[in-house]
Amino acid sequence: MTGIVIIGSGLSGYLLVKEIRSLTDVPITLITQNEGDYYTKPALSHLIRHNKSPQSMIMKYASEMAKELNVRILTHQQVVDIDVNAQTVFSDQGEVVSYTKLVFAIGARPNFPAKIQYQGRRPLVINQIEDWEKLGGSLDHSSSLAVLGAGLVGTEFVYDISGKKSLDWVFSEPWPLARFVPYQVGQWLKTNLKAFGVRPIQGLIQSIAHDGKFTVKVSDQSYQYDEILQALGLIPCIELAKKMGIDCGQGICVDRYMRTNQPNVFAMGDCAELQGVVLQYVAPIRIQAKALASTLCDQPSAVSYPAMMCTVKTPLVPVAFCVPPYTKGVWQIQACKDSGVKAYLYSNEQRVGFAVCGSYAKERANLIREMPDFLH
Q: Which residues, including other chains, have CB under 8 Å from residue 34's CB and lie 6 or more apart?
């Protein structure tokens, strides 16, 4: 059966299938190396506080998705080779699938920075349901716990776990969410999370060793833990694409139509790099899926991004921001109080972004309407 082949069953892959199905009944094959069940990965970072199980995240099983969307789903199969001339995909289970158009929706993997020296068992990382199940068991039996990383995922896990037990928050960033918000917002977040039993430890993470317990060396100081959850960013999965001669930078390079440099091969989601930028959150993925579905159905549609906001999943210490990925700017603090902070991002004297927290977070819905498009 020849048709559209999608590699990956994460949010990107399934959103794309849904968008295609709204336009056509063309044959679709989805290949995944895991169970292929449908769930939203962002939900991984707020299960603990709400006493939810990993299974409760699953919206529909792969078999249900296959029937509902009339799509062939090949589970527990890893794509090991692609013949771009014959337009054929090969899996490690001996499956051979021909395609008219091929889409990489393979996401990203947890980062283990080369500058950190690892010894023995590595820290836990959470990138799929199976990872979360490992963490849940470890949490139950751990009297000392640390989360490494103060990016979006690390921050949300710290908040989630703090609803159950005290923990250390170890990070090398100058302040929490430093890629997205100014110092004053990050500092407000750090200060207010202390009230939930979080101890921030900021410094250079030098080494992580495991010998019964974890020992983390931070700026020449050592700390010991029963368990560590590491959230030091995500690296786009590009190895297979590079093997087949696709241009890659940080991610798989695509144009505004999500096309790679190989004919009839596309990429989207956490693995895709559009105009030098990889956007690893939900809002752009939804936009990419809609545009790419149209393109795959011979109605070319370029990706355009409106201003997009990210609301951090820390509702008792609310933070939201809008930071354009293709624009450099300078933060200006509008208000800074114990109750919250409001900041605007300016570029060429134009307001292009914002960050709000605490009492000012309620302004986010109005502020996002005032922001210019990210990419038009």
A: 9, 75, 76, 128, 130
Q: How far apart are CA 284 and CA 307, in angstroms?
A: 10
Q: HSE-up of 223 (CA within 13 Å, CB side)?
A: 24
pLDDT in tens, 16-47: 999 999 999 999 999 999 999 998 877 777 77
Q: Identify the CA nearest to 355 among candidates 181, 152, 188, 184.
A: 181
End-of-domain residue from the set 230, 260, 283: 230
Q: What is the number of structural domains in the chain?
A: 3
Do 45 and 191 lie in a common domain? Answer: no
Please give the torsion angle defined by the CA atoms of residues 26, 31, 37 and 39, in that order, rounded to the nearest 10 degrees.
Answer: -80
Specify the pTM: 0.94
Rounded mean pLDDT, 154-163: 94
22: helix, strand or coil: coil
Radius of gyration of the chain (CA): 21
Contact in structure between 280 and 308 (CB atoms under 8 Å): no
The residue segments making up the domain with residue 139 are: 112-230
Tokens 């110092």, residue?
Answer: 183
For 113-120, the CB contacts below 8 A with 24+ separation are 113/232, 116/205, 116/206, 116/207, 116/208, 116/232, 117/206, 117/207, 117/208, 118/207, 118/208, 118/209, 119/207, 119/208, 119/209, 119/210, 119/211, 120/209, 120/210, 120/211
pLDDT confidence bin for 135, thresholds 50/70/90 = low
The pLDDT of residue 47: 75
CATH number at residue 160: 3.50.50.60
Would you place residue 136 in the very low, low, confident or very high pLDDT band (cuts 50, 70, 90)?
A: low
CATH number at residue 333: 3.30.390.120
